From TrEMBL:
Listed NCBIfam families: glut_race (TIGR00067)
Superkingdom classification of source: Bacteria
UniProt similarity note: Belongs to the aspartate/glutamate racemases family.
Residues involved in substrate binding: D10, S11, Y42, G43, N74, T75, T185, H186
Record has Iron as a keyword: no
Catalytic residues (UniProt): C73, C184
Pathways involved: Cell wall biogenesis; peptidoglycan biosynthesis
Biological role: Provides the (R)-glutamate required for cell wall biosynthesis.
Classification lineage: Bacteria, Pseudomonadati, Bacteroidota, Bacteroidia, Bacteroidales
SUPFAM superfamilies, sorted: Aspartate/glutamate racemase (SSF53681)
Protein name per Swiss-Prot or TrEMBL: Glutamate racemase
Keyword line: Cell shape, Cell wall biogenesis/degradation, Isomerase, Peptidoglycan synthesis
């Protein structure tokens, strides 16, 4: 038994889509959410810079006494997960997997779309996953241009957001994609718009966050790190961007439940 908190980290608000799944699945666990905020978006920054930012973030969660860290950011996972696991061993670190595998298993049309940031799509992690599970399937990738900025500025239900989503999925829909993978943790906040855009096209949208939360459960089992069942959890929010951003995180988290 271990009542220390689990750290959940993202460049900004996006990781809250993972935070809420972990919270739902593990109601006795305390969570410290760290949304960088100061350096968001990460998506088009050089890999080395994202690695340095992820290192600083994980170091600060370790300093908060976290027993495990979830890197709830595909971009930071792609840039830094091996480095972080090595540096902070034996602490378990969970990263984001692009959910290409379930999408490729479930497609009937043989066409799968993947939306993610530029940095995630050109990374080794995505290349490896695509090569492993995507054979015989047409994988169509597109960066969600402007998506992160729309979510960060609370504009995810605007006509502008709808246009950005339409542009991003146009080629996928033309080619008959019946699965669209959300490869960035900010993107599930655009789900209502995305569902409207693909309505009637028989498309399933794949959000990997429940699978990531299940992985957290597995690792708590494996390392014997579960909190006591009667532990009263605390939920704290941290940022590198100042108090008003910290309050936004708190507010968005409450809204997302
Ligand atoms: N939410 C992040 C991801 O999953 C990062 C987006 C960004 O900062 O560009 O990739």
């Amino acid at each position: 038994m271990n009542d220390a908190p689990i750290g959940v980290y993202d460049s900004g608000l996006g990781g809250l889509t993972v935070w809420r799944e972990v919270r739902r699945m593990l109601p006795s666990e305390s969570l410290v959410y760290l949304g960088d905020g100061k350096n968001c978006p990460y998506g088009s920054r050089p890999r080395e810079e994202v690695r340095r930012l992820a290192d600083e973030a994980v170091a600060s969660l370790v300093a908060q006494g976290c027993k495990m860290v979830v890197v709830a950011c595909n971009t930071a996972t792609a840039a830094a997960i091996d480095f972080l696991r090595e540096k902070y061993a034996p602490m378990p670190i969970v990263g984001m997997e692009p959910a290409v595998k379930p999408a490729c298993l479930n497609t009937r049309s043989g066409v799968v779309g993947v939306l993610a940031t530029e940095r995630s799509l050109d990374g080794e992690l995505f290349r490896r996953t695509a090569a492993k599970y995507g054979s015989g399937v047409e994988l169509i990738t597109a960066p969600g241009r402007g998506f992160v900025e729309l979510v960060e500025s609370d504009r995810e239900s605007t006509p502008e957001a709808e246009q950005a989503v339409r542009d991003a999925v146009a080629v996928m829909l033309e080619h008959g994609a019946d699965q669209i993978v959300l490869g960035c943790t900010h993107y599930p906040f655009l789900l209502p718009v995305l569902e409207r855009v693909v309505a009637g096209r028989g498309v399933e949208i794949v959000d990997p966050s429940p699978a990531v939360a299940r992985r957290v459960v597995q690792l708590l089992d494996q390392y014997g790190l579960h909190a006591a069942p009667d532990h009263v959890p605390s939920y704290t929010f941290r940022t590198f961007a100042g108090e008003s951003y910290r309050l936004r995180l708190e507010h968005k988290a409450a809204e997302s439940l």
